[in-house]
Amino acid sequence: MRMDFTTSEADATEEIAAVEAQWTRIWQEAGGPQGLADRIPRKEEYRVIAPWLERLPPGARMLDGGCGLGDWTLHFTRRGFPTLGLDISRATIDVLQRKFPDAEFAVGDIRATGLPDASFDAYFSWGTFEHFQEGLGGCVREAFRILRPGGMLFVSVPFDNLRHALRAVLLDRYRLPPLSTPRRFYQWRLTRAELADALASHGFAVEDVRIIGKRQGLQRALQHNLGLSPTGLPAKAAATLLAPVVPATLVGHMILAAARKPAA
User: Fold this and answer.
1) Of 40, 106, 140, 220, which alpha carbon lies 20 to 30 A from 124's?
2) Would you state the pLDDT for residue 114?
3) In CATH, what is the architecture of 2-159+178-214+253-260?
4) What predicted TM-score, i.e. pTM, was given to this entire model?
């Protein structure tokens, strides 16, 4: 596991407040879920987990841990799977509750949700477990507690790919900010084996760990190495052309695991 840091003008910002402020800002800039819920079946995460979703019983209860924009919560709720969208950003949840009264949203910390034991059939969380400096353990323990026996956990975290590993060895030692620059922990990056171990060590039976986000990883590589904007047309076009030939182990952006809580 490798730590990523962000520089901050504020010194010693309290972790939860910093995370809440960060995701509140992202939500406000994106403008909410709008039509994004309808696009969920086209997302790579959905395509990966679809075989397990098909095995869920009708009306299965689901948790969206770190729901952010709320688009996944809305999608599954409208498909007949009662889904709770949980997020640490109170501002985000206030807006979602007001705009989408047909769905269920709540403020909560995914490390200590306060939800009943064995109360969900499935739990998914995209790019959230990695944002706590003490590691993934608290998130994984809580997921195991609130899932029913046989329930599924789907989680994605940043991938510590070969490009990152090489960059750390060759470049990062020379690019660290001066010690006088305030830094705050941002996230962990993991290998597939590290993610599988984090889940298995807390009781889960790991069924798959897959690299996803190859084009997104390529766009970021072009940003870091050529100075291209990752959202600009040149980077997007180059990533589309290169994606079929560049190994996912070199540039994949995220890894996604599917794990089952053993039946009682």
Assistant:
1) 220
2) 97
3) 3-Layer(aba) Sandwich (3.40)
4) 0.88
